[in-house]
Write a structure and sequence with these properties.
The protein is mostly helical. The chain has helices spanning 5-41, 44-63, 69-85. It is elongated, with a radius of gyration of 17 Å.
């Protein structure tokens, strides 16, 4: 349990940031799933348009420090290759 006023504040901030970061991570995962489902269905047009949205959200999450830049690059590269293979 936090004892000093400063540590209580940091505990409150941690809860608030965790909630915010969780929402952003969930949003990114949702965009990735949308593109993946479009690829599985063989819908190249939907996958391509969804890929642009996914890429934007993933890059924003990286800039906020939620994901490592190499993880984002790897995901974008693999999904892009899957779309090209359709």
């Amino acid at each position: 349990m936090a004892n000093s006023a400063g540590s209580r504040k940091r505990a409150r901030q941690a809860v608030k940031r965790n909630k915010h970061n969780s929402q952003i991570r969930a949003k990114v995962r949702t965009f990735i799933k949308k593109v993946t489902y479009a690829i599985d269905a063989g819908n190249k047009k939907e996958a391509t348009s969804g890929f642009a949205d996914m890429q934007k959200n993933l890059d924003q999450a990286v800039s906020k420090g939620l994901y490592h830049k190499n993880l984002a690059a790897r995901k974008k590269s693999r999904i892009s290759a899957q779309i090209k293979a359709l």
